[in-house]
Amino acid sequence: MDVTIVLILLLIGALATFFSGNALASKVALFFSVAALGASLVILNQFNQGIDCGFSAVWMKNPNVLFSLKVDGLAIAMILLNTALIPLIILSSFGNNFSNPKNFYSLVMFMAFAMAGTFLASDGFLYYIFWELSLVPIYFIALIWGNDDIAERKKAVIKFFIYTFVGSLFMLAAFIYMYQKAGSFQLDKLYALELSSKEEFWIFLAFFLAYAIKIPLIPFHTWQANVYQKAPTVGTMLLSGIMLKMGFYSVIRWQLPIAPNAAKELQYFIISLSIAGVIYGSIVALKQKDLKRLLAYSSLAHVGLIAAGCYTLTVDGLRGAILQMIAHGFVIVGLFFAAEIIYRRYETRIISEMGGIRQQTPKFASMFMILVLASVALPGTFNFIGEFTVLYSLFTKNIALAVLGGTTIILGAFYMLRMFQHAMLGETNAKTFADVTLTEGIVMVVIIGFLLFFGLFPKPIIELIAPSIKEILVHIK
Amino acid sequence: METGLVLLLLLAPFVGFLTNIFLGKQLGKNASGYLGSLAVIVSFVVTTVFFLQVSASKQPITVHLFDWFTLDSFNVNFDILLDQLSLLWLMFVTGIGSLIHIYSISYMHDDENIHKFFSYLNLFIFFMITLVVGSNLLIMFIGWEGVGLCSYLLIGFWYKNQDYNDAAKKAFIMNRIGDLGFLVGIFIIGYVFNTLDFMTIKQAVLAGEAKANLAWIGIATLCLFIGACGKSAQIPLYTWLPDAMAGPTPVSALIHAATMVTAGIFMITRLNFLFDLTPDVQTVIAAVGVATSVLAASIGLMQNDIKKVLAYSTVSQLGLMFLALGLGAYEVAVFHVVTHAFFKACLFLGSGSVIHALHGEQDMRRMGGLKSVMTITYTTFLIATLAISGIPPFAGFFSKDEILMVAFHKDKVLWVLASIASIMTAFYMFRLLYLTFFKEFRGTEEQKHHLHESPALITLPLIVLGILSAVGGALSIPGNSWLNNFLQPVFAHKAHAEHHLDNTAYMLMGLAVVGALIGIGIAYSKYIKKGEIPAEDDQITGFANVVYQKYHVDESYMRIFVKPIYAISKFLRDYIETGLSDIVFGFGNVAEGLSLQGKKLQNGNIGFYLFAFVFGLCSIVFYLFFLR
């Protein structure tokens, strides 16, 4: 069995969801997403036995485009992140009443399909198509099912769409330029391409623009907080949990090995920018009034650290970045879900309108607390492994980088505990807070279980990604 | 066999935590408390078994549990190291931990969330054991952050009160400042030694491999010391500890006096071979320690909240321990950690007994005359007070005396300062004793009617700790120290020669006792003879008020650090964020503006098109004929 099965399941899932009608849509989507997860686990198993699960077929003769999918440890890790989070995200939405659910869940499945394609494609043209394809469903999800005033939302979502789309066009230009030289979009052909330092520089920058907007890094982040806030929580989870990892994945898979010399030249500049983002995001998060916005800025801070790890171009930096991508994916989905759970009961996202919840629902309070602790990378959670590894890699570059990046452990605790205190603690709230439902509980427990388990036994993931990191670093060296 | 026992040691409190958190409510209040206590007692018994084994064999026990994670140049394994140092620490952590759990069954009985209390307390013990038995820096760091978490949860145990939550948050964040230092220290050590394992580092140091990297090691030890400052409440990171008194009193006794706050001392002692290499950092440690000791003691002179006095006393005593560490006298610091654990736990639990009897009153101005009603509490409190004041033959005398002696031999200034701190300690402790237990009762009539000695579950731990405070000094009697011999394998150098008894030693002991008696004498004349009662808050003026207000350090931190960060945050939120957004929209607006202008041209007016056509043609002709 090769990896196309995952893509097929997700695509069929999208269609089946659409045709199953409104009543069944969410359940059909859940079914196919779980099936895709199962298929990914089978692929993982095959991969561990040394079977090549990649796929390649000629798609177009002119231009020379292959439908080729590459499967290595890194790709599998990202596919698993995708297919593990999608069922959780779908399940988390069972408490919502969306209008037109068949369209909604179909778009979610289609987005999962496009993102999976992005993580697998090893042909630049195919990769670009998947990359852009993933933008379409999230655009509609945010626009149609989002919250707040429609005009404001439209403005934010369209800005997001155009901004990321324009960024990606530069990437497309870079691909076309390279195609002129290599006669192929194939990953290994592009790796092997001999580029002058000037060419590398511009190609690197073109990629950087696409990825810096997608991730986002400061100062390209202005779309983020608004869209995270206004999208429905499912959309926010898709964006923050999975889609932004497409950016990092592309940095590691495409940008760094294709333009290694430019990367080396610019690495300190980008690391500094990323770490500035860590501090900037943390400080802006402190005084946010809206819980989802606060989490958006916390995400901005965390992705800054991941980016810094990527651009150290060291084994530890890349490893830490990948681990942190996975850990962040789970924790941010959990945190946004906690915000959603509160919203379902209090119909507010404003932190000052919450408070006094813990007394009413100790269960939810404990789960939320654990997520907060994972977010501030308490040792024993998976997030600690990633954060420690990234900070250590920064230290091996320069001690000042580690200290500045390390302020995240102070500032992160500052804004997260402050938020928790005002959202959850204090005198018992007059409004009753119904206990978490079964499905809500399942989603939370699975996420927490994942973060705690791999906090103590990260070895399987570390071993899964190790060979890919080595291979990529060979191209960079 | 050993792996099984180690797992039992670690997991007993963890299982206690899980059981109480999930089933505690169903179990009922008493069952929950007894279960929590039992979990710690199991760990205590296992510790005793290991302790006896290692005392006899003198061989440390190492157990490999599992591989944790990998870095490029080294692996981090989940290994356990049970040597003399960790076992000594475990003995008093689990021993005093058991006593305080038992005490809490009664003390917390009326709290609706008692099962949560015990589950957090168990979790704390679990992390404290992890901290102590880890065989490398990162396992220690798990415990280190874990106890910080439990401290956060327990300071904010009464979470309806946002002031308490503030205190909890402050403790966590200030600790995290130290933790960043700790982390950087870990990075450097990993980088220099390619391992984080204590034994391997020690061997490398003893083999002289560290010589080439002394500068790095200096930065590392300094960073680690910053970490220790956070956890063990030293200048400048001490202000969280007095606030931490917001937590229930057993928590103050266990976490914020006897065990967690000594973690910094444990860490430095554990890495003594590194600190020995960096004398400059040792000087810093000694200076910070003695400064903290004097500063905290001076604040303690003026406080009226019984727990605040004890909190500042703890900070001050920890300062003395750091002084000893800075002077390279690790075994002396450890000795004082142990005796301090006995008498400070006793004092805190005693104050809890008093607060319990007075239904929550903590202001000493509203106490007095409890001696006759609460005899057991009073007697044990008196013993512990004598111990902390340094009166022979009580435990604190021996340990404090050794610190003073070491200081005297190294640097007379340090000795003078430490002696001043000790005199102040004797004064404020007796001030506390007199105000609480002597003279007339000054509380309400209502309280007076209900005055009573606490039940056996409270007095029993007090008695045990009282006895330990009385005889604990036997661990290390000058000239013939069991403790020093026991700990010797842990250290890279020989124990100090100062332990020998000579005339200087006797003279110093005499001076120390005289100093303590002076402090006690002043307290006696003020509060017994003259019968003074500290002034009400609004009547404290001048310098006294500055001291009473803790030198306004908290307010300064607020003004220098917290408020500016808030201001920056608001500024970034309101101006920079919107500004950046406008710039991006600016690109869009420019494009839109251009297209709007362009749109005007295509207005469907044939005349305009013709005009444009003719104008364009004329321009071309003009250009071709006249300008070329």
Characteristics:
heterodimer, A: 477 residues, mainly alpha, 2 domains, two-stranded antiparallel ribbon, 19 helices, B: 628 residues, 25 helices, globular
Explain how this protein is built.
The complex is a heterodimer of chains A (477) and B (628). By secondary structure, chain A is mostly helical. Chain A folds into 2 domains: 1-258, no CATH class; 259-477, no CATH class. Chain A has 19 helices and 2 strands. In chain A, strands 1-2 form a two-stranded antiparallel ribbon. Chain B has 628 residues and is mainly alpha-helical. Chain B has a domain at 556-627. Helices cover 74% and strands 4% of the residues of chain B. Chain B is built from 25 helices and 4 strands. Chain B has helices at 2-27, 29-57, 84-107, 114-133, 137-155, 162-193, 198-206, 214-231, 240-243, 249-258, 263-270, 272-275, 279-300, 306-326, 330-357, 375-389, 395-410, 412-437, 445-450, 456-471, 482-487, 503-529, 542-548, 553-601, 606-627, and strands spanning 61-70, 75-82, 476-477, 480-481. A two-stranded antiparallel ribbon of chain B has the order 1-2. Chain B has a two-stranded antiparallel sheet with strand order 3-4. In chain B, a hairpin with a 4-residue loop joins strand 1 (61-70) and strand 2 (75-82). Chain B starts with a helix and ends with a helix. The mean pLDDT of chain B is 91. Chains A and B meet through helix 7, helix 12, helix 14, helix 15 and helix 16 of A and strand 1, helix 5, helix 6 and helix 24 of B.
Helix run count of chain A: 19
What is the number of strand segments of chain B?
Answer: 4
Question: What's the average pLDDT of chain A?
Answer: 93
Which strand order spans the largest sheet of chain B, edge to edge or round the barrel? 1-2
Largest sheet of chain B: 2 strands, antiparallel
What class would the helix/strand composition of chain B place it in? Answer: mainly alpha
Q: How many separate domains of chain A?
A: 2
Distance between the termini of chain B: 102 Å
Query: What is the succession of H and E elements of chain A?
Result: HHEEHHHHHHHHHHHHHHHHH
Give the radius of gyration of chain A.
21 Å
Overall 3D shape of chain B: globular
Q: How can the largest sheet of chain A be summarized?
A: 2 strands, antiparallel
Beta-strand content of chain B: under 5%
Quaternary state of this entry equals heterodimer
What is the helix content of chain A? Answer: over 70%
